[in-house]
TrEMBL record:
NCBIfam families: carot_isom
GO BP: carotenoid biosynthetic process
EC number: 5.2.1.13
GO cellular component: chloroplast membrane
Family: Belongs to the carotenoid/retinoid oxidoreductase family. CrtISO subfamily.
PANTHER family attached to this UniProt entry: PROLYCOPENE ISOMERASE, CHLOROPLASTIC, PTHR46313
Pathway in which the depicted protein is active: Carotenoid biosynthesis; lycopene biosynthesis
Protein name, UniProt field: prolycopene isomerase
GO molecular function: carotenoid isomerase activity; oxidoreductase activity
Catalytic activity: 7,7',9,9'-tetra-cis-lycopene = all-trans-lycopene
Source organism superkingdom: Eukaryota
Length: 566
């Protein structure tokens, strides 16, 4: 989705764009598949950014950029938390995040009445972050002309946002809240979108999530999440761009000056361009796609500050509708033990999107996507028989946990398809099936997170390895920034070239200085987070001359895939 967003904005800005998509359909983890009359979302069904007001409705704006729109259904809740038992909550902490902000605050305050002021203050700070962002036309934070324009347009919002850049959510929460159980709840609030606790989640990111769910709302696209990518792809092509499917990128091409100048595919075809945007992770972009070139120092530092998050074990289920009680919400999070929340196979996410869009399932049935974080190491080296047994055992375990929340659901299953981290690696091309990068130690807010430009001239990165991180709306934000910066560099948007070089040097120096800072007292130095991979050869085949302004390529190259079972 980051690559599609970049392409949409760039083709609308006058660039000639070629999108190289590895798979047969667009969208990656925001795509879909169909089985036995069910339509399943590959990844999350919880969509932000589809509202109709403000500037943070990035999915709506991205679709509008290429003349498209989607019909959506407003979810009355973001999700329903089922959290551990405690002395105060002997039946478990049960909280619904309502679309209405006041209803949510009232519900949370009823669980922690002694923290009423702290709850208001903490989530009030989240609104301050959101309001600052929502006052800006969201483009590239790497473009000084744009930033100066925004400063004059909204000086209070810009200056306010500047103060939040180095802040982490956990630090802000502890300013106002002391109750350990409530602080763990805020950890869960962060974990569901960042896969790390509040202390490692930038406040800028949390501010967007904690506020937009009430401002723009959680809206489900009719027909499934895959509708978003299909509409974007249609719009890109209708606006003059091109999309090539089954296009496995294996190497970035360079000109004599060392600038990125095109892409080579696994079938030998080569496409030349004035710029290249990689929607692959940074591990693949700089570890496998540079043709044996040494990664820039900034990328080595990134790998010292960030590591791969776990992947997921997923169950896509068809169930009888009569097993769900009236009033069941679409999205659920189950945590049975606070101390295990961040461990593999513990936190359980459950989505039932056919509650919002009945067309996704046959009459009298629902689609269910249940998934839990998991590491690929647990699935390596297994025989086919062992692999099948392990899948069946974990599936049965998760269904038992679901039975505790939805009695009888395991016996109501009429269709089941199971995926492991190996499935994510194979079909989504993610190294180790990872969800994305997470800090290997507490970050300085978003300051250590890389933006779209790289130290390789002409090469840009987009997606969850760039600011602001994971999530569909987040990678679309990344695409907006990437497209704006690249359009400026191509001379298709106004910029200040003389100021650009100095400003880029400044933010690069600031980020590298932040990355080089040692761990705080009590923190450990990060463990080695990269895995070795043989570099690609550059070859000597002459390129096919294609005069694209820009090429984007999505997912990882074919050589990353492991030819293993699903």
């Amino acid at each position: 989705m980051g690559g599609l967003a970049t392409a949409a904005r760039m083709v609308a800005g006058g660039a000639r764009v070629l999108v190289l998509e590895k798979y047969t359909i667009p969208g990656g983890s925001a795509a879909y598949f169909q089985r036995d009359g069910y339509t399943f979302d590959v990844g999350s069904s919880m969509m932000f950014g589809l509202g109709d007001r403000g500037t943070t409705n990035l999915l709506t704006e991205c679709l509008r950029t290429v003349g498209k729109s989607v019909e959506t259904v407003l979810d009355p809740t973001q999700l329903h938390y089922h959290l551990p038992r405690s002395e105060r909550h002997p039946q478990g902490l049960d909280v619904k995040v309502w679309n209405s902000y006041e209803a949510f605050v009232a519900e949370l305050t009823s669980r922690f009445p002694h923290e009423a002021a702290g709850i208001r203050s903490f989530y009030g700070d989240a609104w301050k972050v959101f309001n600052a962002l929502n006052a800006m036309d969201l483009k590239s934070l790497e473009e000084p002309r744009y930033l100066i324009e925004q400063l004059f347009k909204s000086p209070r919002g810009c200056l306010s946002l500047l103060g939040w850049l180095p802040a982490n959510t956990g630090d802000i929460a502890r300013k106002y809240i002391s109750d350990p159980e409530l602080l763990r709840f805020i950890d869960a609030e962060c974990y569901i979108f960042s896969t790390v606790a509040a202390c490692a989640t930038p406040m800028v990111t949390s501010g967007m999530v904690f506020s937009d769910r009430h401002y723009g709302g959680i809206r489900y696209p009719k027909g499934g999440v895959g509708t978003l990518a299909r509409k974007l792809a249609e719009g890109i092509e209708q606006a003059g761009g091109a999309i090539l499917y089954r296009a496995n990128a294996t190497c970035v091409l360079f000109d004599e000056a060392g600038a990125a100048a095109g892409v080579r595919l696994s079938d030998g075809r080569e496409f030349r361009s004035r710029a290249v945007v990689s929607n692959a992770t940074r591990w693949d972009t700089f570890g496998r796609l540079l043709g044996g070139r040494e990664p820039p120092e900034a990328e080595k530092l990134f790998l010292s500050r960030y590591k791969k998050s776990p992947s997921f074990f997923s169950m896509h289920l068809g169930i009888r509708a009569d097993v769900l009680p009236p009033g069941t919400e679409c999205h659920h999070v189950v945590v049975d033990d606070w101390d295990k929340m961040e461990e593999a196979r513990h936190t359980l996410f459950i989505s039932i999107p056919s509650l919002l869009d009945p067309s996704l399932a046959p009459d009298g049935h629902h689609t269910v996507h249940a998934f839990t974080p998991d590491w690929i190491d647990a699935w390596e080296g297994l025989s086919p028989e062992e692999y099948a047994r392990e899948k069946d055992a974990l599936c049965a375990s998760l269904l038992r946990r679901m039975d505790a929340r939805f009695p009888g659901i395991s016996s109501a299953v009429t269709f089941k398809e199971v995926g492991t981290p190996r499935t994510h690696r194979r079909f989504l091309g993610r190294p180790d099936g990872t969800y994305g990068p997470i800090p290997s130690r507490n970050p300085l807010g978003i300051i250590t997170m890389p933006f779209n430009t790289t130290d390789v001239p002409g090469l840009y990165c987009v997606g969850d390895s760039t600011f602001p991180g994971q999530g569909v709306n987040a990678v679309v934000f990344s695409g907006f920034g990437c497209a704006h910066r690249a359009l400026c560099d191509l001379g298709l948007e106004k910029s200040w070239p003389l100021v650009d070089s100095g400003y880029r040097a400044l933010i690069r120096a600031a980020r590298m200085a932040a990355q080089k800072m040692g761990p705080k007292d009590g923190e450990q130095e990060p463990a080695e987070v990269t895995r070795s991979g043989a570099p690609l050869g550059t070859g000597a085949r002459p390129p096919v001359p294609v005069t694209n302004n820009i090429i984007t390529f999505a997912h990882q190259p074919a050589h990353v895939q492991q030819q293993q079972q699903q």
